[in-house]
Each structure stands twice: as C-alpha cells, then as structure tokens.
Specification:
By secondary structure, the protein is α/β, with parallel strands linked by helices. Helix content is about 45%, strand content about 20%. It has a single domain, classed as 3-Layer(aba) Sandwich (Rossmann fold). A seven-stranded mixed beta sheet has the order 3-2-1-4-5-9-8, sandwiched between helices. The protein has a two-stranded antiparallel sheet with strand order 6-7. A hairpin with a 5-residue loop joins strand 6 and strand 7.
Length: about 270
C-alpha cells in the first residue's frame, strides 16, 4: 500500500489552522505505539530537561516528534531534516505561527550526505532507516555529527514482520508500506552496523510484541487500509476509534510496559 497519498490527504485536513495541527499531533501521540516507545526513551535520556541542547530530528516527516520535544523542552535548539520540500515548508510555517521558529528549523536534506561535525547532543530517527538503502553511510554521518557522549535514538521495523508482510496467492511478497527498501532489521544486524559506524555502546530492544501487533492492526493498519480504498471512510473514522481505541490503549500500555523476546519493531539507542 502507498502511504504518501494518505499522508497528503491528512495534511490537507489538519493543516488548515495551527489548532487543527496540534490536534493532529495529539492524535498521533495517542494512536501510534511507536510514539509511546519514543517518548518513554526520551524521558529516560540523561539530558532530558537540560537546557541548551542541540537536537537533530532526522527524517522529521509531519514534525510531530519535533513538536513534542519543543513543547517539553522549549530551550532546546532543534534542527529537523526531511527530503520533501513541501513538508519542510509546511512545518516551518506552522512553527512560525506558534512562535517557535527561533528554536526550531526544518531543512530539506538527504541523510546520506547530511553531516555536521560534533554538533548534536541528541539525534532521533523515527521510521526512517527502512526507507534508506545506504544505511551504514547514514549511521556514519550521525556518529560524526554527534558530540562525545551524545545519544542516537532509532525506531524502525524489525525483520519479524515489521513492514506488514503478507503472502499473496501468486507467491509474491508485499508489505503494508510499499515505500520500504528493506523488510526490517535483524536486531543483531543493526547493532553491528552501528558499532561498525563508530558507536561505543548500542542497546536494542523489541517493540510491537504480541499486544503491540494487535494494537497496530486496530489503530493503524485496518483504518489506513480502508482509507486507501475510499476517502469516504473519513466520515466513519471517529466512530471506529470510539469503539476500538480503549482496547488499543490497554494494548499499547502493555507493550510499552513489558519486555519482548520478539516483535515487529525495534527501539535502538547508541552512544558516541
């Protein structure tokens, strides 16, 4: 399934006013299990609540994680990189409207070439590496761009069904998100690649265990599949979530609270 057309449709709906944009970010924080995991790891980051940190949001997308970090730590300076010109312009416009353009700047950039020597105290990279073929080059750029002792936080699909793989009758394998260049990382593979890029310590764990997989299907896969078939489903979406979200909330909480021996996603932390 192509995800970009749905993202553009959502953008058209929620970009009309800053208030609607904030509502959209709030909904993403509630619905996306990966956001729960990322927020948990950020709160555990040793620099959390320190002022004056330089942060890179690598592959910022809609800008929801930049917004969340800026709201929690308004004294951080955040640079957010994305390859899509219109998304970068849209995010800069929004942060200007809410009076945060001095601390937050979105730039168009390619992570395979983006490198700023010894600048960042923290880099986050959420749902990005599965889209980039030259991943080792990106890891090397992250390492070079980080200060000594800085942390890199990655959230990405694992090789255990992280791209929503399913078998079709013809035997052809497709993923739920067709834009992915890999079906997910083996946990040991990404650890070794990060160590090879120079990181001194790497800590990887599974997310989207058994409860998270069910929550993801309820909160994301089923509604996005229906939206991909017909935009009329937007009308029914609030009623759908009214029924299913209480179940998804409990499942998300269980996934974030527990440790999983396997899972369709990975949370990876690496230190320089």
């Amino acid at each position: 399934m192509q995800y970009d057309p749905i993202k553009r449709t959502l953008g058209n709906v929620f970009n009309r006013t800053p208030f609607l944009r904030k509502v959209f970010y709030g909904l993403l924080d509630l619905l996306l299990l990966r956001a729960w995991h990322v927020h948990k790891e950020l709160k555990a980051f040793k620099g959390w609540k320190q002022s004056g940190l330089n942060v890179l949001d690598a592959g910022a997308g809609f800008g929801q994680y930049t917004y969340w970090m800026n709201r929690k730590n308004p004294q951080w300076t955040i640079t957010s990189i994305d390859v899509k010109d219109e998304q970068v312009a849209d995010c800069n416009r929004f942060f200007g409207q809410i009076g945060q353009s001095e601390r937050v700047l979105f730039k168009v950039g390619d992570l395979t070439t983006f490198r700023k020597e010894n600048i960042y105290d923290l880099i986050i990279c959420v749902d990005v590496m599965e889209h980039i073929e030259e991943d080792v080059k990106v890891f090397e750029n992250y390492h070079a761009s980080m200060k000594e002792g800085a942390m890199l936080l990655i959230s990405t699909p694992s090789d255990q069904g992280g791209s929503g793989l399913d078998e079709h009758h013809e035997g052809e394998v497709h993923g739920f998100i067709d834009e992915h260049v890999r079906d997910g990382y083996n946990i040991h593979e990404i650890e070794e690649k990060l160590k090879g890029a120079g990181f001194s310590k790497v800590d990887a764990r599974y997310q989207y265990g058994k409860p998270g997989k069910v929550a993801w299907k309820l909160s994301m896969m089923y509604p996005l599949t229906l939206l991909n078939k017909s935009k009329l489903f937007f009308i029914l979406l609030p009623f759908y979530y009214l029924i299913t979200y209480p179940i998804s909330y409990v499942l998300n909480w269980r996934d974030v609270s527990g440790m999983h021996h396997s899972g369709s996603g990975l949370v990876v932390k690496a230190w320089k």
